Amino acid sequence: MSLFSSLQVSASGMSAQRARAELLVENMANSETTRTPEGGPYRRKDVVFSTDVQASPFSAVFQNELGTGVTVSDVVQDTRDPERRYMPGHPDADATGYVAFPRMNPAEDMVDLISTTRSYEANVAAISSVKDMISRSIDIMKA
Fold first, then answer.
1. Which residues contact 98 (CB under 8 A, 6 or more apart)?
2. Positive or negative, the Cα torsion across 106, 23, 99, 87?
3. Is the model's pLDDT at 143 over the cut of 80?
4. Distance separating the N- and C-terminal Cα atoms of the chain
5. Where do the H-state alpha helices sit in the chain?
6. pTM of this prediction?
């Protein structure tokens, strides 16, 4: 794999982790949303990653070397029944006084967000390392 295709692979990882972070933040922001345009409480969402061949813009020059990156292949919604809380005065309460809330675990979402952030940072570090290798290679060629 060439250095340039390594940049493409890391960039795809950063893009995928950014999409995951956006959904995790959306989930946390809607953890108490009881009414959506679709009806019912908010449903937790998560991304599904899949491998994707990443072609570098320089792949034609460098023997068509391709790297395997990552892409978001799907966004899935939680299909579990919502959490029901007894709140008879709530505007979204049913006839028995129960309100349907999203089934969320804030601790789990925070751990997922930290993991996503660390993965993003790892891709940034990889890009920085490749950039340094390219810079040093150019310096060696100058001498």
1. 84, 85, 86, 87
2. positive
3. no
4. 25
5. 3-29, 106-142
6. 0.82
Q: How confident is the model at residue 60 (pLDDT cuts 50, 70, 90)?
A: low
pLDDT at 55: 62
Which helix (H) or strand (E) covers residue 46, if one does?
strand 45-55
Rounded CA-CA distance 43/31 in Å is: 9
> Which residue in 22, 40, 37, 3 sits closest to 133, CA to CA?
3
The sign of the torsion formed by the CA atoms of 79, 81, 84, 89 equals positive
Question: What is the three-class DSSP state of 106?
Answer: helix
CA angle 32, 37, 40 (to 5 degrees): 50
